[in-house]
Design brief:
Two copies of one chain form a homodimer. The first copy, chain A, has four domains: 13-30 and 182-324, 3-Layer(aba) Sandwich (Molybdenum Cofactor Biosythetic Enzyme, Chain A); 33-55 and 147-180, Molybdopterin biosynthesis moea protein, domain 2 (Alpha-Beta Complex); 60-143, Molybdopterin biosynthesis moea protein, domain 3 (Molybdopterin biosynthesis moeA protein, domain 3, Beta Complex); 332-400, Beta-clip (Beta Barrel), CATH 2.40.340. Helix content of chain A is 19%, strand content 30%. The two termini of chain A are 46 Å apart. In chain A, strand 8 and strand 9 (129-132) form a beta hairpin. The first copy, chain A, has a six-stranded mixed beta sheet, with no helix packed on it. Chain A has a six-stranded mixed beta sheet with strand order 16-13-17-21-20-18, sandwiched between helices. In chain A, strands 19, 22, 24, 25, 26 and 28 form a six-stranded mixed beta sheet that branches. The longest helix of chain A has 19 residues, at 306-324. By secondary structure, chain A is an alpha+beta fold. Chain A is elongated, with a radius of gyration of 32 Å. Chains A and B meet through strand 8, helix 2, strand 14, strand 15 and helix 3 of A and strand 8, helix 2, strand 14, strand 15 and helix 3 of B.
């Protein structure tokens, strides 16, 4: 009999998260990219953006009405001749004569000499004269150039995740493109002879191939471009070829499966000789973890149980991935436990939970295969490694999914 | 002198929002569509989805280890012959002989007869025999078929906005597609001779054309597919042609500009004879509003000031648009005002605000041209029509942007 294989001492969750963050750190140095403003929704500005123009571009009318000198309408009613009409888009270079009015549309340039606008509601209009019934003070209904934003002033800060209101401002100052953080390109690579594509008939022992689809969805929700969802059987040559293609087209590769203690662990078998580090993390689910740098590209190897894959991503990779996308860290808060919990000693456990008004209920069991159950969870309940049981009412940390 | 035009009595914000909702109500009856699960992130399920299979599909091992009968390992240490190896993906049809073990990989089918799994860590393995050092009870490390989800059981409910965890579950049960609400198709149509595309030189009196880009971003953020961002000058024939094309390709058309009291109001001039209703709403910004049904397609006409366009969308259209996309209503809460406010009598005012820990500060002025200022706001501060001033500390309703 051979002795049992020596168990490598397990890393803590925090240690492993830091290892993953360090592995991805160089990706912060990618060059940014210019994208058209209309397509920039949800992207993260990589630099401060300043206005190339004054806004308003020119002094203009806030109302449909008559541009006048305030002094000429100080006493009302007063009749004034109308010496012109200025539509929006017209130059408005002609000076307003003393004691006269020019008709102006909202947004049209004010004629030089005019210092206020009398709204159309406050006059009786004739063919070429108006009777002003209510005067206006200097500046009323006049929008001065640059009062919204000055040329060179900040329109949006580096790090802003662009919402419609930012797009509106960037478009208003006439910018065709803006600099944004380049999306990480990732490939998700599932392994396993037993995996079959959605919609196919399953032979005995087969299951549907879901981890790549699920991980891709999680990555996309965190601002990552998923270049491919690939698959390999447990054949080492096939896996090597698929992995090489993945590494050639991505900044970051995720594998699922093939990292445990079985006889057919293709991911570990291929990547360990390439310098990969495989070993246990003191966590449940998601204990067996591996990481490798292949041709300069980080490859994170998650275990193949569906819940393990998703929890591994959420706990180890998501903080770094979101930071690289310029997105806020996953929300982690404290709440009250509404379900009693037992947990193995020495392993930090992430249970699936559902927030209610009063706290968090643990739903679904701890099993790493309960992926359908996970659909009903909106948080992970974080049970520290040293804790073996928690009663109803205990404070617990929850991590938003 | 002609008398002033009679002012139509202004509608209230609530009345006009209801009119818009009624105008869009028929769009709730659009047929849903089937989309591939990997592309369904963020879409809204149009029907309950049930599992076509049991999950786990078959009774399988939760560990890499040895499938045994619990009775055979009740007393340890005990030596057992290993009569086979079952990898994941293999059928596992061979029955486990009494007093024997079969090696099983995580996820592999349990052989008939086996009722627990001894993890690889708990045995010393020889060439064809194992020494079991710790026994296991019936059912330990066995995942029974259907314990995650049963065939026919609910995987996700109608109305669910699909997050990665739902995608994971839908993929795990092998569904190639899911039924989702069809996205609304909208066209945004800006009008105005003075509008120029981003990046061009502005002649005197010209400004950048931003409302279509801004409105499209707001619509996309609310789950709408923007089929086109179109533009027309103030020429009625051109506007008519662009409008007809828009109506032919969309469920819903938005116009901006051309609805006020000026001499060149192309939107009103073309649409009023087609049955459009144009008139004031007692709101600031965004007072002049219009709606028309052209060839069965609702056309909402917003005023052309950039802030007016965005606030009109947020206040009048967004609730209905989000409801049609199956998205939650825009968040409206109450908070404390941190800036004193003055407001015109008889008009509900929406000021741009920024939430802080203590309440909401009004930022930027009330002017409907202050679009760059709006970029710094994350809420609209809702000042009721009858209110003319609010002091610091007053409770105010805020609407999330």
């Amino acid at each position: 009999m051979n002795p049992r294989p020596a168990t490598a001492s397990a890393r803590s969750v925090d240690e492993y998260r830091d290892i993953v963050a360090a592995l991805l750190a160089h990706l912060a140095g990618r060059p940014d990219e210019q994208v058209p403003v209309p397509g920039a929704l949800g992207r993260t500005l990589s630099a401060d953006v300043v206005s190339p123009i004054d806004l308003p571009v020119f002094r203009n009318s806030a109302m449909d009405g008559y541009a006048v000198r305030a002094a000429d309408v100080a006493v009302t009613p007063v009749e004034l001749p109308v010496t012109g009409v200025i539509a929006a888009g017209k130059a408005g270079a002609e000076t307003l004569p003393d004691g006269a009015a020019m008709k102006v549309m909202t947004g049209a340039p004010l004629p030089p000499g005019a210092d206020c606008v009398v709204p159309v509601e406050d006059v009786q209009a004739g063919a070429d004269r108006i009777l002003v019934e209510r005067g206006r003070a200097r500046g009323e209904f006049v929008r001065e150039a640059g009062t919204d934003v000055r040329v060179g002033a900040l329109v949006a800060r580096a790090g802003t995740v662009l919402a419609p209101r930012h797009i509106a401002a960037l478009a208003a100052v006439g910018l065709p493109t803006v600099p944004v953080l380049t999306r990480l390109r990732a490939v998700c690579l599932t392994t396993g002879d037993e995996l079959r594509p959605a919609g196919s008939e399953l032979a005995p022992g087969q299951i549907y191939n879901s981890n790549g689809i699920a991980l891709a969805a999680a990555l996309r929700a965190d601002g990552v471009e998923v270049a491919d969802i690939a698959h390999s059987t447990d054949d080492a040559a096939e896996f090597t070829a698929v992995l090489r293609a993945a590494v050639a087209s991505a900044d970051l590769v995720f594998t699922s499966g093939g990292v445990s203690k079985g006889d057919f662990e293709v991911v570990k078998d291929v990547l360990a000789p390439l310098g990969g580090t495989f070993g246990p993390v003191a966590v449940q689910p998601g204990g067996p973890q591996g990481y490798t740098v292949v041709d300069g590209v980080p490859v994170l190897s998650f275990p193949g149980n569906p819940v393990s894959t998703m929890v591994s991503y959420a706990v180890f990779a998501r903080p770094a991935v979101r930071a690289l996308a310029g997105l806020p860290a996953p929300e982690a808060t404290e709440t009250t436990l509404l379900t009693p919990v037992r947990s193995p000693a020495g392993k930090r456990q992430y249970l699936r939970g559902l927030r209610t008004g009063d706290g968090v209920e643990v739903i679904s069991g701890p099993g790493s295969h309960l992926i359908a159950g996970m659909a009903w969870a909106d948080v992970l309940v974080d049970v520290p490694a040293e804790v073996t049981s928690l009663a109803v009412g205990a404070p617990v940390r929850i991590l938003s999914l």
